[in-house]
Amino acid sequence: MDPLEFVTDRSIRRALGFAGLGVGLVMLSLSYDLPLAFRSGADLAALVAVTLLVMAWRTPGRDMRHSEPLMMLQELAPETVQGMARAEVQRRLKEVLRRRLLWHAERVGLLAVALWAAMLVVTALR
Fold first, then answer.
1. What is the Cα–Cα distance from 81 to 94, expressed in whole angstroms?
2. Which residues are listed as membrane-spanning (predicted)?
3. Considering only CA atoms, which of 15, 7, 1 is closest in space to residue 77?
4. Mean predicted lDDT score pLDDT of the chain
5. Residue 25 domain-assigned?
6. 38 in a domain, yes or no?
7. How many structural domains are present in the chain?
8. What is the pLDDT of residues 106-122, one digit of tens each?
9. Alpha-carbon 43 to chain mean position
C-alpha cells in the first residue's frame, strides 16, 4: 500500500472510530427501545456519511501543509515527502484524501441503510 494512502486511511479511520464510539453509545443508551436505537444509529451514521462527503467536496480547496495526514507522512516516511516538490505532495495528498473520504462515506452510508433496514425488521416483528 502506498504510504500516502496508509496515513490518509489511518487519519480518517481514527476520526471514524471516535464517531462510531459516539453513535454506539447513543444506540446503547436507547437500547430500551430497539427501533428507536436503530433509527438513531442510522440517522447519526447518515450524518457522518454526509459530513465525509462535504469534507471530500471541500478537499481540493484546502491547504494541506498543516493537515494530519501530511504530518503523519513526514513522521512515518520522510523520504516520500523529501523526494517530491511541495506542490506535488499537496496535489497527491488532496487526490488521495478526496478518494479515500468518498470510499469511507460510501461504506458509512451502507451502514446507515443496514441500520434503517434493521429498524424496519424490528418494528415489523413487534
1. 14
2. 12-30, 36-57, 108-125
3. 7
4. 89
5. yes
6. yes
7. 1
8. 999 999 999 999 999 99
9. 15
Cell of 26: 447513543
CB 23 within 8 A of CB 99: no
Handedness of CA 68, 70, 73, 75 (dihedral sign): negative
| Longest distance between any two alpha carbons in the chain, whole Å | 62
End-to-end Cα distance, the chain: 47
Q: Does residue 126 belong to any structural domain of this protein?
A: no
For 60-98, the DSSP string reads GGS--TT-HHHHHHHHH-HHHHHTS-HHHHHHHHHHHHH
Q: How far is CA 111 from CA 33, 53, 58, 84, in A?
A: 20, 15, 23, 38
What pLDDT does 105 receive? 97
Residue, of 43 and 89, whose pLDDT is higher: 43
**Confidence bin at 83 (pLDDT 50/70/90):** low
Q: Percent of the chain beyond pLDDT 70?
A: 93
Q: Which of 104, 94, 105 is nearest to 4 (CA)?
A: 94
pLDDT at 65 over 80: no
Range of the domain at 88: 3-121
